[in-house]
Write a structure and sequence with these properties.
The complex is a heterodimer. Chain A is mostly helical. Chain A has helices spanning 3-31, 46-59, 65-91, 93-102, 117-140, 142-147, 150-171, 177-194, 202-219. Chain A has nine helices and no strands. In chain A, helix 2 crosses helix 9 (202-219). The longest helix of chain A has 29 residues, at 3-31. In chain B, helix 1 crosses helix 4 (74-83) and helix 13 packs across helix 14. Chain B has a four-stranded parallel beta sheet. In chain B, strands 5-6-7 form a three-stranded parallel beta sheet. By secondary structure, chain B is mainly alpha-helical. Classes of the chains: A mainly alpha, B mainly alpha. Chains A and B meet through helix 1, helix 3, helix 6, helix 7 and helix 9 of A and helix 2 and helix 14 of B.
């Protein structure tokens, strides 16, 4: 078995298994902990505070005007590279084919339109640049540097590897295409293996977290 | 930075036989075990973006990263991940999360008590939606269990749990209350066997602002509401809440709950005291173990209801440009934003809002027990400068609040900074402008 075969064969299968089991276990882990009942009398009705919780998923995407002067730039940087990542992962033709096959969508005849390769390349380069800016900010901003640990840097490295190898493979830079593609897929395998253990899990947490906090604040009639 | 560990030995038995490290280990493992699904989810959701720092006035004033709100629970995240998270065995096996040490926790006393007002502003900024303030409150519980509650808060909580008063007084509060009634010429309803509304009082008002106590009695008398104070449940404050002693917080709340039940009250009226409102309105039922058989209302809320029903009518107060300090615990964390504004509007007050107001207002700096912690004063003053600037920038000549701790903090600032404004009670202003009541001389 060659490197490419290994990367998209047994390595990918193992990575996907760890990813799925790990993610499920990490979420199930919360369910094993005690759920405290809130016995205070709610200010808002149940439908109202649940609706406000759902609303908070959207409203918390951007800072309140009171905070924007201090946090707007940092949040814009964060969202920008996430948008870049999503565009590259979800709208690049070969990725659409890969995801379609992986999720069984191809079998169902489902697909979605992608962006031209040249545009994806531009977005990738921009995303890599933003990603470097994020790292620069993490190591130079005293607050973020203090909060950062192995998880932050390792997650950054893995994601950057995926981006860089993907770009190299698309541009045929630095080696034979097959090898570059194998390295790209291997880096994805590592990302999937790491995913459940670190902060990448925020992809699964972000919306429920906003909704729960929003609903609990709305229950008290407080601003969320 | 850490204060004498006065709590050690009191909350865990037999504490005298255990080393401090053992007690800390016990407290941390207790924290991990007690971490429910919601707290765990909050702890796990942090992406280390540091944005919460930009909501915290301690960080804004000092730009010292240690004041980043989520950093204040760092040892507790460590303990949770090591002891109770989904991959806890892995963290322990690979040594990825070390055991929290007594020294580490002692350092965090400054972060969790001296430099946190529990104001909850950080909970509004987190892009992940984490209620950081709720985590800090839980961390205070563990600090208490580890014997690391600051002496001032611990002693007041212990005294209050035992006697009902946070401190000894020359005269019992009950007698002082009656004396205030005599001084201000208003009847103080006390120990009625049955009443629609049970009243309580901040001991800060008894000691520093007796006119506020009289104002409450006068307004209730004017409204002809059946109400009573109860000798065995007088004090609104809850130092157990500040110190992090949950059992004491419960016992202190319980005094008021039992008295409200005993007099068949349908409303427990919380006076102008922000944290008393949080403790009674949102936390007491959980500690009591069942829903409270009465409503808990902050006095502004109650009066706004009376205003809306037409039972309360107010005349123009004649105050000029006015600004209002929203108490964090009732406004931001408790949702009492509109009621005080409705009352001010009814008195024709020209309200000049601060740049950050309502749910986004900066804390006075004294909340969360910080005002009581002596060594925290220099940092508190530094933090207050921004708040005082915002108040001054409104150009208002009158400065109102509806929290006696806020009021005391600003009075203290008045002396410290030679600040020109005098914080006044919204309730007192209402009592002075009751339509149909003779103006007070």
């Amino acid at each position: 078995m060659d490197l490419l075969g290994f990367a998209r064969g047994p390595a990918l299968k193992l990575a996907l298994a760890v990813f799925c089991i790990g993610v499920v276990w990490r979420i199930v882990g919360f369910g094993l902990l005690r759920i405290r009942l809130n016995r205070s009398r709610p200010r808002a009705s149940i439908p109202r505070f649940l609706a406000e919780g759902l609303l908070a998923v959207g409203t918390r995407s951007w800072p309140h005007p009171e905070f924007i002067g201090r946090t707007g730039a940092g949040e814009a940087l964060g969202y920008s590279y996430h948008i870049g990542l999503f565009a590259v992962v979800l709208l690049f033709g070969p990725h659409i084919a890969f995801l379609g096959s992986l999720l069984g969508l191809t079998w169902l005849g489902l697909t979605w339109p992608g962006l031209p390769s040249s545009l994806i390349t531009v977005i990738s380069v921009l995303t890599v640049t933003l990603f470097l800016a994020v790292l620069f900010r993490r190591v130079t901003n005293p607050v973020i540097r203090m909060l950062s640990n192995f998880d932050d840097y390792f997650s950054w490295i893995i994601t950057m590897l995926v981006l860089a190898t993907g770009l190299a493979a698309t541009a045929h830079l630095g080696g034979p295409y097959q090898t570059l593609l194998a390295l790209h897929i291997l880096s994805v395998d590592v990302l999937l293996l790491w995913f459940p253990f670190g902060k990448l899990m925020h992809a699964f947490y972000i919306f429920p977290s906003r909704a729960i906090n929003g609903a609990l604040l709305a229950r008290k009639g407080a601003i969320s | 930075m850490s204060s004498p560990a006065v709590g050690i030995g009191a909350s865990l038995a037999p504490a005298e036989k255990r080393s401090q490290q053992a007690q800390v280990a016990g407290a941390m493992s207790g924290f991990a075990r007690e971490t429910g699904a919601l707290s765990a989810f909050r702890l796990e959701s942090c992406i280390h973006c540091g944005i919460c720092a930009d909501a915290c006035h301690f960080y804004i004033a000092t730009e010292d990263p240690q004041y980043t709100p989520i950093w204040k629970v760092e040892p507790f995240k460590q303990a949770y991940k090591r002891e109770a998270s989904a991959f806890a065995p892995l963290f322990r096996l690979l040594g990825l999360k070390r055991e929290v040490t007594a020294d580490q926790l002692a350092q965090w006393q400054h972060l969790l008590f001296d430099s946190c007002n529990m104001c909850g502003r950080c909970s509004l900024i987190c892009p992940m939606g984490i209620d950081v303030a709720a985590l800090i409150e839980q961390a205070r519980h563990a600090m208490f269990e580890a014997g690391l509650a600051p002496a001032e808060l611990y002693q007041k909580a212990a005294h209050q749990q035992l006697t009902g008063q946070p401190e000894s007084s020359a005269e019992p509060y009950r007698d002082q209350l009656l004396a205030i009634g005599q001084q201000f010429g208003v009847e103080i309803p006390l120990d009625k066997p049955q009443a629609e509304v049970m009243l309580c009082v901040p001991r800060t008002d008894i000691e520093h602002y007796p006119a506020s106590v009289a104002a409450l009695a006068r307004v209730m008398q004017h409204l002809q509401v059946s109400c009573t104070f109860r000798s065995d449940g007088l004090v609104a404050e809850n130092y157990g809440y500040y110190a992090g002693g949950m059992a004491w917080q419960r016992d202190i709340s319980r005094r008021l709950i039992d008295q409200a039940i005993a007099c068949h009250a349908s409303i427990l009226l919380v006076p102008e005291c922000g944290h008393a409102y949080a403790a009674l309105r949102w936390e007491a039922a959980d500690l009591y173990g069942k829903p409270l058989p009465f409503r808990v209302l902050q006095v502004s809320e109650f009066l706004a209801e009376q205003l809306a029903s037409g039972r309360l009518k107010l005349r123009p107060s004649g105050t000029g440009a006015t600004t209002f300090q929203d108490p964090c615990e009732s406004a931001r964390k408790g949702g009492v934003n509109h009621a005080p504004r409705a009352l001010m509007k009814a008195m024709g007050i020209e309200l000049h809002e601060q740049k950050n107001h309502g749910g986004f207002s900066f804390c006075c700096g004294g909340g969360g027990g910080v005002l009581d912690i002596e060594r925290a004063a220099p940092l508190r003053y530094r933090t207050m400068e921004n708040k005082l600037r915002e108040i001054d920038d409104t150009g208002a000549s009158t400065f109102l609040t509806s929290c006696s701790d806020c009021r005391r903090t600003f009075d203290d600032a008045k002396t410290h900074f030679d600040w020109q404004k005098t914080p006044q009670s919204l309730l007192e202003l209402i009592a002075d402008n009751l339509m149909g009541a003779a103006p007070r001389t």
